[in-house]
């Protein structure tokens, strides 16, 4: 048993926990059985099982409380049998005072107003809590003792269920058989669920970066992304005007993987060819080529519009609306509180005008 200032009760357990649908049916048999049926009754319950017929599960470090009820005024003694064979004496102890329980009342250990708590600890597996009620106080010096003045809980010398039953029989044998009775409760301690997710931080030296993981856009750079499944993950960092950065990282459970990207020189921009003056001959050839291919030649305004929209989507904008006008195309894209309007118009002499306007809304 562990005891600290908060009185952490180490209620241990080595069997695998059963699921709720397959929980074993536990009878109310006791570790030590009174050969006669006295008119004294006691029942012991744990906070997750008010019936006493179940086998609830607790996680390590989870709080637990134990309740005892007797039909007559009685002294109640509580023991926990751990799966490794060790036995903890829960009550009486040096924290909760006397172990006297009034008739037909339920006493909970620890009490709601107690200045200490009981907390489940390892090992994992099956536990048994034994309650022994006696009309007279028992002398437990033969089976348990406080090793030091600092110990809050007594150490039981017996080991295992059979050892505890034999040790208690020495104490209760001199008592009249109608003056003591026992009851048992069961619970299981399960291991903590393993951490299966991790985090990723991507830092860059330029603004406007977009982080893409396994083909899915996460968002901007210089941000930590959490709850990512552990394992290998392909990463792409995209910045307009720069070559994409690609790598593969390993996401570790409960840890943060760091990726720092230093973008060098931006890509060289190839100057657009000088516009060609429109002539009837060129128009005729262009139409003829389109007719020969049985297709319509690509509209320059549409090409310019598609390229600008693609650039903005690479920066994290989402296309909300797109429509064709008499002179070109108009689109609306949104990212956070920013709205961008892209307008492309055909001009004279085979020119195309691209206009981008941005509106940002701030909350104050």
Structure description:
This is DUF4384 domain-containing protein. The chain is mostly beta strands. It has 3 helices and 22 strands. Strand 21 and strand 22 (352-360) form a beta hairpin. The longest helix is centred in the last third of the chain and has 15 residues, at 300-314. Mean pLDDT is 80; it is low at 1-28 and 288-297.
Short description:
The protein has 3 helices and 22 strands. With 364 residues, the chain is mainly β.
Count, helices: 3
Q: Count structural domains.
A: 3
The whole-number mean of residue pLDDT values reads: 80
CATH topology of the largest domain: Immunoglobulin-like
| SS-based class | mainly beta
The tally of strands reads 22
Question: What's the CATH architecture of the largest domain?
Answer: Sandwich
CATH class of the largest domain: Mainly Beta
Morphology: rod-shaped
Describe the structure using short key phrases.
mainly beta, 22 strands, rod-shaped, 364 residues, 4-stranded antiparallel beta sheet, Immunoglobulin-like, Nuclear Transport Factor 2, Chain: A, disordered N terminus, 3 domains, 6-stranded mixed beta sheet
């Amino acid at each position: 048993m562990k005891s600290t200032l908060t009185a952490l009760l180490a209620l241990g357990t080595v069997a695998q926990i059963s699921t709720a649908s397959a929980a074993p049916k536990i009878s109310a048999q006791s570790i030590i059985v009174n050969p006669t049926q006295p008119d004294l009754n006691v029942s012991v319950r744990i906070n997750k099982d008010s019936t006493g017929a179940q086998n609830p599960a607790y996680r390590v470090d989870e709080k637990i409380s134990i309740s005892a009820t007797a039909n007559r005024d009685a002294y109640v003694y509580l023991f926990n049998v751990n799966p490794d064979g060790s036995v903890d004496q829960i009550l009486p102890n040096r924290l909760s005072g006397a172990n006297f329980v009034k008739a037909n009342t339920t006493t909970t250990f620890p009490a709601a107003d107690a200045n200490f708590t009981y907390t489940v600890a390892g090992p994992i597996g099956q536990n048994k809590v034994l309650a022994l009620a006696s009309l007279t106080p028992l002398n437990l010096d033969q089976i348990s003792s406080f090793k030091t003045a600092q110990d809050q809980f007594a150490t039981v010398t017996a080991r295992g269920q059979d050892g505890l039953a034999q040790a208690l029989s020495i104490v209760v044998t001199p008592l009249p058989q109608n003056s003591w009775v026992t009851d048992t409760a069961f619970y299981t301690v399960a291991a903590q669920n393993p951490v299966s997710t991790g985090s990723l931080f991507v830092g860059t030296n330029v603004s406007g970066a977009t982080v893409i993981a396994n083909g899915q856009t996460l968002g901007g750079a210089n941000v930590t992304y959490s709850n990512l499944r552990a394992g290998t993950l392909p990463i792409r960092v995209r910045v307009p005007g720069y070559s994409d950065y690609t790598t593969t990282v390993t996401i570790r459970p409960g840890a943060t993987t760091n990726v720092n990207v230093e973008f060098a020189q931006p890509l060289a921009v190839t100057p657009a060819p000088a516009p060609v003056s429109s002539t009837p001959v060129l128009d005729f050839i262009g139409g003829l080529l389109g007719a020969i291919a049985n297709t319509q030649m690509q509209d320059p305004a549409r090409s310019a519009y598609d390229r600008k929209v693609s650039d903005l989507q690479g920066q994290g904008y989402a296309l909300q609306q797109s429509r064709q006008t008499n002179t070109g195309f108009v689109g609306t894209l949104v990212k956070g509180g920013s709205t961008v309007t892209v307008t492309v118009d055909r001009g004279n002499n085979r020119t195309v005008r691209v206009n981008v306007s941005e509106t940002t809304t701030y909350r104050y």
